[in-house]
Design goal:
Helix content of chain A: over 70%
CATH architecture of the largest domain in chain A: Orthogonal Bundle
Oligomer: heterodimer
CATH topology of chain B: MetI-like fold
CATH architecture of chain B: Orthogonal Bundle
Structural class of chain A: mainly alpha
Number of strands of chain B: 0
Largest sheet of chain B: none
CATH class of chain B: Mainly Alpha
Order of helices and strands of chain B: HHHHHHHHHHHHHH
Shape of chain B: globular
CATH topology of the largest domain in chain A: MetI-like fold
Number of helices of chain B: 14
Number of domains of chain B: 1
Number of helices of chain A: 15
Shape of chain A: flat
Radius of gyration of chain B: 25 Å
Largest sheet of chain A: none
CATH superfamily of the largest domain in chain A: MetI-like
Amino acid sequence: MQLVWMLVPVLLFFIIFSYIPMCGLIIAFKDYRMDLGIIHSPWAGLANLSELLQAFEFRKALTNTIIISMLRLSFGFVAPVLLALLLNEIRVTWYKRTIQTIVYLPYFFSWVLLGGIILTVFSSNGPMNLVYMLLLDICNFCLGQINSLFGTNLHHFAFSPIQFMTNRHWFLFVLILTGIWQEVGYSAIIYLAALAGIPVELYESANVDGAGRWHQTIHITLPVLMPTIVTLFLLRLGQILNAGFDQIYNLYNPIVYDSADIIDTYVLRILQNMDFSLATAAGMFKSIIGMILIVTVNMIVNKYTKGEKGLW
Amino acid sequence: MQTTFSEKTFNYLNFILLGGIAILSLYPFWYILSLSFSSAATATQQSLHLWPKEICLASYRMVFSDPDMLTGYTNTIIRTVAGTFLTMLFTCLGAYPLSKPYLPYRKCFMLFVLITMIFSGGLVPIYLLIKNLGLINNIWVYILPLLTNAFNILVVKNFFQSIPESIAESARIDGASELRILFQFYMPLSKPILTTVALWTAVIHWNMWFDAMIFVYDNKLQVLQTFLQRIVIQGQTSLIEKGAINYDIAQYTSETLKAAVTVVTIVPILLVYPFLQKYFIKGIMIGSVKE
């Protein structure tokens, strides 16, 4: 009985901060008015939901969310696997540990802080553009040489900085790249842990058989990593509606809404416009689809790893 | 081990490649550090700023004379310390009963906790809840919603389950209450996992800006991250420059100011980084929260 009493504060916490907001989702089916409160606001049925699904901005946000998640999944997911494989080949312990310590660092900083740094580094007179200018310079020099050698008339590249933060395509590039920057060290650790579990005898016997490093990687290392890779991939797939609110909110601007506005930023914006019902409907849409995805993915992972690696 | 020529080449290339990746990963921080020490004249030149040409402290003088930064620092430290302490208390209070197989209705309680992990009401209901609880512009808004979460509880619960029940039993025979068993035996025995969870919580508190942005309007209650956001993201350096001493104006630019603010925010995390790294790596291995 004492045990149940101990649980009471925690249960109260979950009721107040998790379950009451879940009940609050009925706002999505009401025409919420601040002065009337949740209970007395008139019912609106599915009007909010249908308004939402027809809203151009919401559809755009949904598409962007999926596109950004997919880009992260295809590039951001491979990066830590590669990093772990390369790190694993380094036999000098102090060097390996130093590299790990450095690439792990950005993980501990907020996106406010990283965002500030990124805005500076990718600004039109920041170091990224400086490097770009140097490359252009080299290209133009080569073109000049070619022109004078062969008498051709190839045009030189114009010197204009890349607008990383205001060009809709470059913005996505920055998003994915800096996403990798922040996360790659952290994600690589999981793979490194799996790699550390491979018995040395396996490699030794492969060596005796004359298999080189490359073959050892293909036939020993990768197969050992595979369950971890598949599991993490599926779990990331379950998070597809989370395209990285913190990062995007601190980097984007109205010019790139077209490609960078995601569900979370959209919800925040309509909330700030005081359209509570529509914002709740959008949030609910995300919560429900997200839940279905996570439950499904967890089932698949449990099946695939025979109940070993699922979330629950 | 035999090494062929191609393997040797690979080793060297790999060495260089990873070194390059590490340098690239560190460079943005270095650039900011170098920029923060630059004078206005050198900062405005486009350069890689591998090294500040002269050490100029004007930007730092500005940042340290800004009262907002002090407020932010104080509030962030308060929420991190108090928040982490209370989170540990709540998490252990939840984890201990759930770790006991003989807890009545244990399955129901577990489900009750687990559901919160996969479904949430979303932003708007939470906003209205906070408003109705009178937590708008209240320092408790930083602490109460983060008191605990399902993941922390399950991680600690799993660790508690690995502690032999005989310890609890013999303490019970001596007349100890369940609370005392938790505080006197279970918590000291679970130090590594509790440290890990405490550090997760502390980092979340230190880096949190969203709640301050949405729920708090009062400048006196703002946290470090908010002031940082106003300066480095929204570019409101005028807030700092307002109280500027005139002769300094030529010595800094808004860019060096931003850089200095960033450095001042980074340093505390760097100081505890070795500690953070050690326990976070331990924490990563706890990937799943199943029974």
